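Troubleshooting log. The previous structure file for this entry was overwritten by mistake, so regenerating from the original sequence record. Sequence copied from the archived sheet and checked twice against the printout by T.R.
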Amino acid sequence: MKLPVRLPRCQRLAVLLSVFLLNPELCSLITASAAEMKAGSSVQTLTNLPYKSGDKLSDYEKERCKLDLYLPAGRKDYPTLVWFHGGGLTGGVKDGKTTVAVAKSLAASGLAVASVNYRLSPKAQFPAYIEDAAAAFAWAKAHVTEHGGDAGRVFIGGHSAGGYLTLMVGLDARYLRAHGLELTAIAGLIPVSGQTMTHYTVRKERGIGQFTITADEAAPVFHVRKETPPMLVLYADKDMAARAEENEYLVAIMKGAGNQRVTGLLVRDRNHGSVGNRIAEVGDPARAAIFEFIEAPTKFRPAATAAKAGD
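Regenerated output below.
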């Protein structure tokens, strides 16, 4: 907005102030940009670290099996979240705009994030992407201390397809055992709107329709039992078709099996995308639940978090 030069300085400032007050979206944009700059200044980023090695790797593994580390600058002994992006197991990248925003924001608040790429379907098929996810966790478990983190507090989380990978690595012990680890190595699981039945991309690979619901060894619900790592299962009230119900079913059947370490949280006023993307925002209920869970996963109880998140 061009101001007349004849206006006194105080009047010009008043006009500028009115522009901001009458344009809340502009205010939000500037506030968000300032917050991002502040977060970026308090985060150390290491990019494209390979989490697989060896002469037997395929070219595709060499290309995709890398992660970015977002570390809380000037801190020590912090927890780490190994984070898997979404994209239906067929797309997505570790350095997408929203994924980077979430990683930087969490790291600025003291939670290191390892943002992971993994092989995608149809170029790679079940269980390749789960094997990659397990390898990424094993790498983080072995290397976070080199960067100042606490190897005893390495969590796994992810949004959508990343939530599915989180659950499969955290519930089917075979994948971590390939790296000499047991499920007890995981400090906690934080799946966000992940499929809990056999993933529809896995079904497609097998020639099964998207809505032909299956629950075999490729389904998190197939691996329900009493003893698991602590779990915070997040999903949206406006989630994609049947996704909230799948997550509610997983939580219910886990509790039915006597599992006392699982908590489900329905995040209100969120859809399938925003329930994951808005974790970057301070004050987001899913974000608040994540930090509460990170602080005391074995003591986590649904009532306290639900009360804070209700709206």
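DSSP finds twelve helices and eight strands in the chain. Archived copy saved in two places this time.
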